[in-house]
Amino acid sequence: MSYIEIRNIFKIFGPNPQAALELAKSGSDKEEILAKTGHTVGLDDVSLSIEQGETFVIMGLSGSGKSTLIRHLNRLIDPTAGEISFGGENILAMDIPTLNAFRRKRLGMVFQRFGLLPHRNVMDNVAYGLEIQGTDRKTREDIARKWIERVGLAGYENKFPDQLSGGMQQRVGLARALATDPEVLLMDEAFSALDPLIRSDMQEELMKLQAELHKTIVFITHDLDEALRIGDRIAILKDGKLVQVGRPEEIILNPADDYVQAFTRDVNRGKVLRAKSIMEPTTGTISGDQADTSQVVRPDTVLDDILPMALASDQAIRVLDRNDKLIGTIKRQQVITALSHSPAN
Ligand SMILES: Nc1ncnc2c1ncn2[C@@H]1O[C@H](COP(=O)(O)OP(=O)(O)OP(=O)(O)O)[C@@H](O)[C@H]1O
Ligand SMILES: [Mg+2]
Fold this sequence. Notes:
Keywords: ATP-binding, Cell inner membrane, Cell membrane, Membrane, Nucleotide-binding, Transport. It is found in: Cell inner membrane. A six-stranded mixed β-sheet has the order 6-7-8-3-9-10, with helices on both faces. Strands 2-1-4-5 form a four-stranded antiparallel β-sheet, with helices on both faces. Strands 11-14-13-12 form a four-stranded mixed β-sheet. Among the domains are: 95-231, P-loop containing nucleotide triphosphate hydrolases (Rossmann fold), CATH 3.40.50.300; 271-339, CBS-domain, CATH 3.10.580.10. The chain contains 16 helices and 14 strands. The chain has 345 residues and is of the alpha/beta class. The model has no long low-confidence stretch (mean pLDDT 91). Magnesium ion (MG) binds next to helix 3.
């Protein structure tokens, strides 16, 4: 069982969801249900398994159900039907005190509008979660100082949110979420309000932190480049339904339908696709005369770096793992096919 298990979640918005639920269960879509019942389908039979330590991205057009899904994970809303567990524990069965403790201790949240407390300085914002948990001042300020430093804001402890740029405010948001050492970070469009360069810095920062911390991160975005950059896996929602879940390369190489393909069309495939996903796996070893060291790549080498080699020599490129063991080969045509826009097949 995975760390977070979401099983057959339906969310119907409206005063009398049961009739709409039955329609959704029998296969009617969002548009039809709205026309027949006046109820809005937020989520339609969504099941997902999220592993401990992975960065899991949820994507989809506006109104597809991304926020609705993440709000189920902290129980800001409850499903019309379905089950959700964290570490085997059914979170829908938690009573209010248990739920409050669960949110405080095990979840960290970062949202698009930074949600900082305007009358508290950076230090007191970052220490806020610990203060609520009853941590004494010295301890919480030591911890907060460490996180303020970690997100690059040392020296700003006494500034107030309105004295900081958007990027800095979001760093405070991240430090605040991490200060309580949560198991899970929920991030809803956390970087979407930032300028492109600042946004890219924050993505970098998050990836650096994650390489050390190995939190379970559920990250919502409508930006595919962001999703591909930070996601270990990506789920794509449409009209409340899950249309595809997969690793970034799987989504690009094998989009489940036209909707997913429309998302992936403008992706820079050369920067996203890697040797391991296009190579022909091999089991044999290389004989001495074939061992041209110039035609060697690693499994994680991106296509942009493979293409010049593929064009320079007719020899197949060899993919070697960390122990220099041959694990696959790549021919020129495979590189060209993978870089072209139509899905490879
Ligand atoms: N509280 C609510 N009451 C009624 N309908 C709602 C409510 N919250 C969401 N919905 C509906 O549920 C659907 C999914 O909304 P949701 O906010 O989850 O979309 P989203 O993918 O987060 O979109 P965006 O990218 O615009 O943030 C939409 O049709 C929306 O109108
Ligand atoms: Mg949303």
